[in-house]
Each structure stands twice: as structure tokens, then as C-alpha cells.
Amino acid sequence: MPKEAVVSTHPLDEVLRTDRLPHIWCPGCGLGTVMGAFARAMLASGIPLDQHVVVSGIGCTGRVPGYLKVDGFHTTHGRAIPFATGLVIANPELKVTVFSGDGDLVAIGGNHLIHAARRNIDLNVICVNNFNYGMTGGQLGPTTPKGAITTTSPYGFPEDPFNLPHLLASLGAVFVARWTTLHVRQLEETMIRAFHKRGFRFIEVLAPCPVGFGRPNDMGEGLDEMWFYRRQADYDPQAALEMLEVSMHKDSKVICGVFVDTERPTYMDNYHKYVLSKVMGGKSGAA
Amino acid sequence: MRREVRISGFGGQGIILAGYILGKAAAVYDNKEATLVQSYGPEARGGAASAEVVIDEEPVDYPHIEAADILVLMSAEAYRTYGKSLRPGGTLIVEEDLVPLEEGQKAIKVPATRLAEELGRRIVANIVMLGALVAATGIVSKEAIVESVRTSVPPRTVDLNLRALERGYEYVKEKVRVL
Amino acid sequence: MSKRVLTGRHFMMGDVACAEGALAAGCTFFAGYPITPSTEIAERLARRLPEVGGHYIQMEDELASMAAIIGASWAGAKAMTATSGPGFSLMMENIGLAVMMETPCVVVDIQRGSPSTGLPTLTGQSDVMQAKWGSHGDYEIIAYAPASCQEMFDLTIRAFNMAERFRNPVLIMADEVVGHMTERVVIPPEEAIERWERPRPMVPPGEHFLPFAAGEDLVPPMPRAGEGYRIYVESLTHDERGYPVMSPEVHDRLVRRLNEKIRRAYDQIIDYELSEVEDAEIIVISYGSTARSARQAARIARKEGMRVGTLRLITLWPFPGRVVEELSARIRAFVVAELNLGQMAREVERFTDRPVFRANHAGGMMMPPELILASIEEAYRDAKGSRRQYASIR
Q1: How many other C-beta atoms can be found within 10 angstroms of the C-beta atom of residue B70?
Q2: ipTM for the complex?
Q3: Does the beta-carbon distance from C75 to A83 stay under 8 Å?
Q4: Domains of chain C, earliest start first
Q5: What distance in Å separates residue C379's CA from the closest CA in chain B?
Q6: What architecture does CATH give domain A15-278?
Q7: Which residues of B are less than 8 Å from C369 in CB distance?
Q8: pTM of the predicted protein model
Q9: Domain ranges of chain A
């Protein structure tokens, strides 16, 4: 019989608020996996931890910054992006990540999302998409697949959901990727890549919510949804953006990859060029 | 003593700027108290514009005016709206070519737009009217209005505006028998 | 001459004076959404902030504007936004966030005729209760009501200083008359302008630090993002570490401290102006542009032989209740004049046993002095009799 291994430290202790663990997420939830990948990516990025700031809105994903031992802000529902916009404009040295859920970023925060992407604000946005409002018990959201059962779509969701990579690419985001919580290494590497880019970056992470979404939609437990991703996920970074809708049907594909990786002047680049260059000195930074 | 001035015309004539320059002359250069409030029509250009300036030795509490001591009108519409709002014994100054006076109405008539065109730019008609206003009423000192024009118009246009001010001032001093 | 402080004598619109006051106070960040009659503030700062190394950004709405100034404040900026009624309503959500996160920031509301879209270009004073109670929850707010262009400048500086001192949002509750009027504004030399800074941590990053533990004044020191304190700042109820705690005890303690830090500083925050109250039988209480009409009405009343004094509220919130209490002992009645249907009058009633008469108009014009005069006359006539709740709108 193998001996019990007891360790007093963990490689992520440096970046986790261990005094806040265990976390609040349900068994089978994908959020711990995404947070772990992000924590490792922060360490691997080489960017000093004091420079990292994580901002979130409301929802299960909104709890992520509370577990990370870097500067963190848990703001109001939908407002993580404008809060982070003020933060990073006032101090452009900060490496600001917005970590929030699909409902927070795309429903109530949708207007902010599209404008921050248009402006190419220097933000790294990680959107954990679990197809529903998990914290409040499984209501529909703007990424809920058509026909899916939620507590507020008991007969099946009658609307078309957002195709997030397509949306973000159309808005001019300079980096757009999608993975699932099964793709831990790819996700971590993508996060590191995103850390080293400037401008508006968007990573969608499909994650199981067995309680809110999995059970009513016959996805099974968290592990079953991971098996679904294993069967149905395709790596296809060249895929046509309009083909990236996620229907979560048992025989439909989930296409993953880095779909956009480009450059264009960031908000601050343009502010320097069009505004500050025309006034004295061209100094930047509001703080 | 509280004195109430209304300057009115159409948008684009520089009505509000004229009110601003007058108020500034009083408040900043003559050490009096002054307020300016303004109203426009909903149109961005061409609608009615009106500036209300109150000048007093005491602090001005209520900046709005009902009947003006000095009424400067630069359009027919302004005349229709405010022509009757002059206080008895007040001074009416009109843009001669734009305001069709009712028979028998006494006014100081200044062809401000024509005088401005003679100086090369019709847009300084408002400043011509200001010169006329100061000459006719003495509500602010000549030095104050000159200083106020100098510090309120775009730097490139200071000379032109000062000539316009002088032109309106002289016109009244020379041609008009102040009533 | 410093570009930040335009020292000198100016003839300046109230909105512009507000923007210049912000710059003089050290404002480095403005996020806003243009709305009449506050737009001139945004326009002025769009031009002026870049000149002094600051930043102007026009956001997609007022929800975003309010969120952005809180974010900027946590990066160390002195931050402001400006709006009017409809935008003020949208800002309520994150004014609550600023209270909860104890974030210094300044919000200017140039009030117009309301409710809803109301009278965009015409004045009103009907957001003054919203200023106190508009965001959900128990909180204290600091609000000033300027009555002149000079005060638009002076009180904006004070708003920044109070925001920094108490780590709280501070409101400038101006009205369209004051915002759009032009008057002389004297801007002092830069060295004569007092600038307060937020309390800062006494321990270096890395050492044990409780970011929401406060001392005697109940205002905790405030680190900046990126300094190395690794802070966690919560909109949820949180303990001294900043960690969320779902406990009635922690919640009660936090909410009481957030309120108490402002209440305790009453004397520092409260400002008002009394005129001719020594022999007054009736005192007219008013604020903002209406106070100018009240002064005129009181002057006329005095000429007619009525002994009338005035109390001009410069601080609206916290409400200067003590002065109302003190005055009550020696007068017959109050007249509360305001461009709404009687909002602050309710507050006055909480602090007096004297009759409170009202001079109200729903807005759209500056308060006519005659309307106040009529209420003064009514108070003079009836103050000995029963308490009249509403003066009619004439």
C-alpha cells in the first residue's frame, strides 16, 4: 500500500491566499482548474507579481481574485472592465487581468466589453464560460446554447447565443483564444502568451458547471463534461470564426485554438500619438 | 446701482461672446460685480441667442432680467421677442439694417454689420455693437472694454476686434445724438 | 505661470470653474459621459487634463465612468466624473462601490429639471435626496452645494480634499443656473491652494498589514495597486484583511464604521452661511442658486419690516442639523426654499419643533424671489397657528 505523502508547501503557495482555502466552488466545477493555470502562468510569465492586478465582477468566476495573492479587486456586476480601464490608464505599468464569467462580461457588462475591445485597452480578459449563471442557481445567460434547459428557460432557451471569439475578433481584439478546462497546458501557455502581448486580449475558457448547467442538460457530472470535451474538442486555429458557436450537442464540435494574434496600436499608443504629442512634453500616466 | 443689459440676435452673430466681454469688462477690469446668463434656441446655428448681463456695485444675487436698462438687438426676431422689454428711460440699440423698428420707437441705430464688412470681416459686427453700447451708455469704462476684448478673442484677431470696437465707439460718438 | 493652476482673475462659467477647481486640487483623471448641463466640465477637462499630464476619457456610459474613476483612484489618481440627473441615476451603483471600497473620488451633478429626461437645459434641485439615499444600503456621503461660480471652483477643491481625507466619494450638487452662469472667479496662486492626500500605509510592503483596519479616525490607510501590498479589495462585506465574510457581526461592524467615519467628522465637513439671524423671527433655508433668490427675498422682506434671516447650506450631506436645532430656539418659523417639491424641508423638520414653511417650484427656472417672499409672508402670518405643510406653488 502506498504511503501517504504529506507536503507542507505547494508550488502555488506564493500566488495563492492559502488562508482563504478551501474555495467555495462546487465539486466538478472548472474554475479551480482555470485559476491554477492562471497562477502557474503568472509565475512562469517572469512579470513581477507586484505588477499583476486581477479585477473581477460578480459571479462564481468573480471570486478568483480573492484567492490570488496579487492585488485584486472584486467589483460590481458587469463593471470589471471599466474599473480595470481606469486602473490601467492611471498606471500603465500595471499588468491588469480581468477574470470574470460569461454573464458578467457579456450580458450586464457587454457594452463595456465591446468598447474596451474597440479602444484596444491594455487588458487581458479571461472569460470563463459555463453557459449559465452558476452562483444564483443556473439561470440562462447570453452564451446559453439554444434549446438548453436552465431554471429560467425551463422549456429550452429560445435565443441564439453569442459566439464569443467571433464577436471579439470583429471588435478588433488583438488576441482571441478558446480552450476548455481539459486543455490545461494549452491554456497555461496561451495565458503566458497573452501576458506578453499588449492591447485587448480575450481568452474564453469553456468550463463545466455540473450543478447549474450539466445536470439539467444531461451533461452529467463535471468529469462527464470533461469527457465530452475530450471527445468533441478540435484544435483548429484556422477555423472560420463564424463556425465557432458552441451548441453543446453530444455530436457537435467544440473548436479550440488561438484564432487571432495580431498587433494594432493600443489605446495608450493612440492617446500619445493623437493627444499627448499635441500638448506639452507628452507625459503619460495619470497617477 | 443694478443695471441690466440684454444682448440678443441670432446664433452665429457672437451674441454670447459680446455678453461675455461686457461682463468681463465690468467684473474683472472695472472691479464691479457682474453675471452673465445665456439662452439659445435648440438649433446649433441660426436660432435665437440671448445674453443677459447684470452689472452692479453690490454682489448680484439674481442674474435674470425681465426689463432691460440697456437692450441691444441684432435681428428682427430678437426685436419681435424683446423689443417691448425695455425699462422706461432705458437705452435701445439696434442693428440698423436687420431690425425694422416700429414707427416712433426711439433707438440708437448702428449699421454694425456694414461697418464690420468695411473692416473686412462681417463676424466682428458683435464687437462693433459693443463699442456702440459703451459709447452710448458708459456702463463700463473704455479701458475695461478694450482690455476685455483683448483677452477674450483669439490672439490672431485682436487687432481686427479692437478696430471693430473703436469703429462702433466712434460711430456713436460722432454720428448719433444720444437720446 | 503654472498650467495646472490658472492663477488670476477670470470671468468664468460655473462648469468651467468646477473643472479648473478640479485641476487646482490635483485631479489627474476624468472619466465621463457628456450630458447637459454638465458637458462644459468634460469639454474643459478634455482640453486641459492632457496639458498637465493627466488623462481624460469619455466612456460608453455613466456606469462605466463611475467604475473607471474608482479604478483610477486605486492606481493613485485623484479622479472625478461629472454628470446630470439621468447619468447620476446610473452612477448610483458604483457610488455604493466607492463607499464600500473606501475610494476617494469626486462626482459632480449639475442638476436639471427631472424626473427622467425632464428639462435637459433648465435648472432643478431635485436630486438632493438621491444624493443621500440613491445607492442601496446605509451609507454616509459628503455633498456640497455651490451657489456661485467662485464656489464651483472653491468647493470642487474642497470636495477632492474631503474625498482624500475620508476615503469616500464626495458630491458637488450644483444646479444648471450655477453651472451655466458666468461670474468673476479668482484663482489663487498654486502655493496658496491647500491639497490633502489620502492616508497612506505606515508599514512597507511585505510586512504584516491589515488594509481595512482603521485607527482613531476610522479611516484606514490606502495603498495603491502595484505597490507590493498585494491587497484584496472587496465589494462584498469584508473584514479588516479585506476578505469577504458572511457574518452579521462583521457586516454590522463594517457598515457602522463606514458611516461613523463621516459622522464623527461632522465639524470638519459641515459648512453653512448665516446672514442677519440675530434678530430674525423667520429664517429662510436654501442652497445652491436658490440661496441667491433667498437673499434677495430676505432683503425685500426686511425693507417691508419683516425680520428675516437666511441660512445657506453649503454642506448638504451630512445635513447640518445642529445649526437648525440651535436656530430653532430663537425663531418663529423656517421657510425652506428649493427647486423641488420639498426634499430638504423634510430634513429640516427632523431638527426643529418650529413650523416649516415651504417655497417650492419643480424647476425649469431659477427660483423667483417673489415665491420665497410669499412663503415668508405666509410664515409671518401663520407661524403662531397650526403647522402648515405645504406652501402653494404660485
Answers
A1: 22
A2: 0.96
A3: no
A4: 8-192 (3.40.50.970), 273-382 (3.40.50.920)
A5: 23
A6: 3-Layer(aba) Sandwich (3.40)
A7: 61-62
A8: 0.96
A9: 15-278
In chain B, what residues touch C296 (CB-CB under 8 Å)? 61-62
What is the rounded CA–CA span in Å between residue B5 and residue B54?
6
Give residue for cell 488623462.
Answer: C55
Read out DSSP for B3-67? EEEEEEEETTS-HHHHHHHHHHIIIIIS--EEEEEEEE-S-SSSSEEEEEEEEESS--S----SS
Q: How far apart are CA A215 and CA C349, in angstroms?
A: 58
Bridge partners of residue B73, in order along the sequence: B8, B94
Give phi and psi for A74, each to the nearest 5. -105, 100
Determine, for residues C11 and B28 on separate chains, whether the beta-carbon distance falls below 8 Å. Answer: yes
Place of cell 437692450: B71
Cβ neighbours, 10 Å, residue A27: 10
CB A165 within 8 A of CB A244: yes
User: Mind giving me the DSSP string for A197-223?
Assistant: S-S-EEEEEE---IIIIITTTT--SHH
* CB contact (8 A) between residue B63 and residue C181: yes
User: Digits of tens for pLDDT over chain C (394 positions)?
Assistant: 569 999 999 999 999 999 999 999 999 999 999 999 999 999 999 999 999 999 999 999 999 999 999 999 999 999 999 999 999 999 999 999 999 999 999 999 999 999 999 999 999 999 999 999 999 999 999 999 999 999 999 999 999 999 999 999 999 999 999 999 999 999 999 999 999 999 999 999 988 999 999 999 999 999 999 999 999 999 999 999 999 999 999 999 999 999 999 999 999 999 999 999 999 999 999 999 999 999 999 999 999 999 999 999 999 999 999 999 999 999 999 999 999 999 999 999 999 999 999 999 999 999 999 999 999 999 999 876 444 444 433 3
Determine, for residues C225 and A78 on separate chains, whether the beta-carbon distance falls below 8 Å.
no
Contacting residues of B for C183, CB less than 8 Å apart: 27, 34-36, 60
Nearest to C179 by CA among C3, C9, C21, C357: C21
The CATH H-level superfamily of B3-175 is: Pyruvate-ferredoxin oxidoreductase, PFOR, domain III (3.40.920.10)
| Chain C residues 85-114 with a CB less than 8 Å from chain A | 93-94, 96-97, 101
Q: Which residue has the cell 474555495?
A: A23
